[in-house]
Design brief:
The protein is 32% helix and 23% strand. It has 16 helices and 24 strands. The strands form four sheets. The chain has an eleven-stranded mixed beta sheet, sandwiched between helices. Strands 17-18-22-19-20-21 form a six-stranded mixed beta sheet, with helices on both faces. The chain has a five-stranded mixed beta sheet with strand order 1-5-4-3-2. It is globular and about 80 Å long. The protein starts with a helix and ends in an 8-residue tail after the last helix.
Amino acid sequence: MKLNKYIQRLNYKTNITDIENIDIGGITTDSRNIKPGDIFVCIKGARFDGHNVAKDMLEKGAVAIVTEHNLGIDKQVIVEDTRYAYAIMCAEHFGNPAENLHLIAITGTNAKTTITYLIKSVLKYMGEKVGLIGTIRNEIDDISFPAKFTTPDPYTLNELFAKMVDFGCKYVVMETSSQALDQQRLDGLHFDVAVFTNFSQDHLDYHKTMENYFLAKKKLFTMCKTAIINIDDNYGKRLYNEIQNTGADIITCSMTNKDSDFYTQNSQYFSDKCIFDMIYKDTAYSVTVSMPGEFSVMNALQAIIASMQFGYNIEKCTDGIKHCYGVTGRAEVIPTNADYTIIRDFAHAPEALKKILAGMRKFTKGRLITLFGCAGNRDRTKRKIMAENVAKGSDLVILTSDNPRDEDELQIINDAKVGFEGIDTPYKIIPDRYTAIMWAIDNIKSGDLLLLAGKGHEDYQVLHDETIYFDERVIVEELLQKKKEGKLNINI
């Protein structure tokens, strides 16, 4: 493809006179990956500014440099915003594949992963081929790929879109992270549906303030045809008010607010499912979702509403939800063949822990036991709040490690345990997570529920300079077998 095709949708200035005759091999922002014939796009990041190596890129064979200001070099294309330019040029590189897809985006602090899988399940039930982009993995219909980021960079994203189009996918449902929106990875895209789940403290190590965090999320709703907003959330109410003039059709939903477009009644909670009535235009529709917890009701509600936007019958959408049997690491029940329950979940922020514990409490017959830790190299201010929320929502707490990364795991634990002060809930500190799970399984009793929080779908643990295999579902299954055989060896 010629250079002029890459930049045809941009406002630019260039000192290249024959842009219609220059063949382009590829496009990159990574100076380590430049090849002769490529375009190099200068991006200024937190630690590295591509403008500083533009001349070196020419020497390595770049045929064009995209920059935000005049660098005094040959072969430069000057644009106002190189992040925006990169997103547009990546789309051009792959033939603008998103134009052949219906895009559905989910954003919020919690529930993004679950809702993407629920929507995919409903659309698959309708007989459609569906792509999925998210935290756990990326999927092209039934083919799965590893996911490095919740929302990929523009090149990877458009490459995925192109593969989905080639495979015959009609829809793509994707998680959209606040970092991706802030870094303009989605610039140039238009979404048929955007869903706002909820909003609470997270990622302040990146955004610094809650206001910055919210504004990053809000950007999605300037890029969509239809917005679906949970107005039970205070930030959802704010979002509803602030996007009135964006041109988006706005649909509200609530667990209890009868003034919303959709709301719920008669919810029943079990260890493996929720049953509720969805009320729409004064008509009740019975819904069963095979996931526990009160939060699963809102997740299912938003998934049904999103699916309905493509003309599907409301009854078929509610039937489609029944055919999703849970999501890996999201309120996932691990079979025990015993009269107690073990659930693993990705909850790793204060509000997520608060919500899942409130949901688990509704059907726990015995003690609610929570095993959790705090991640290293992440927002330290939330550690105390996490511990406080867990202590208030549990009958017994086991404080352990999560992914310490480069931090001292004992320092992380000390940051967290301050949250237990003034709360009577008993707690035990066991820094080694495997040993902590072993102790929990050894001490679980009839009717108890053990929540393994924080790791969810992850099958690894990041410990300083190494990453080890750590799949909690496998670990629990192995430890339950040892318990059955009387071979648990607790040494703490």
